[in-house]
Amino acid sequence: MEFFRKTALAALVMGFSGAAFALPNITILATGGTIAGGGDSATKSNYTAGKVGVENLVDAVPQLKDIAVVKGEQVVNIGSQDMNDEVWLTLAKKINTGVRQHRRFRDHPRY
Could you tell me which residue ranges the L-asparaginase N-terminal domain spans (predicted)? Predict the structure, then answer.
């Protein structure tokens, strides 16, 4: 009986371990802006918006790999003042496509 109990417990743990530890998938759609700004020196106050790419930003936080599978997509790399209707429409289309491709949402009747 003890052998059966240990075997059942091991099977239960193994069965749930894959589902319990699956990391969520996150896609960052980057547009540049202040967060992606960079300058010639860390001591000077001037910077250029949209200078750093999304992959560099994601790589700068290695702890992200512990909590999610993070993918970055550089939609544009511009300053906030240069956001326009075309960029917003591109973002909206990419979001809609991503939601439709995600299985959880794709199988839902609302999408």
Answer: 25-99
Averages of pLDDT over each 10 residues, the chain, 111 residues: 51 51 88 78 71 86 93 90 95 91 59 47
Using the structure block, give the residue that is written with the tokens 């990419």: 94
Report the 10 Å Cβ neighbour count for 94: 14
Alpha helices in the chain (DSSP H): 2-20, 54-59, 64-67, 85-101, 103-106
Half-sphere exposure of 96 (CA within 13 A, CB side): 8
The model carries a pTM of 0.64
34 included as an active-site residue: yes
Domain 22-106 in CATH: superfamily? L-asparaginase, N-terminal domain (3.40.50.1170)
CA atoms within 13 A on the CB side of 94: 16
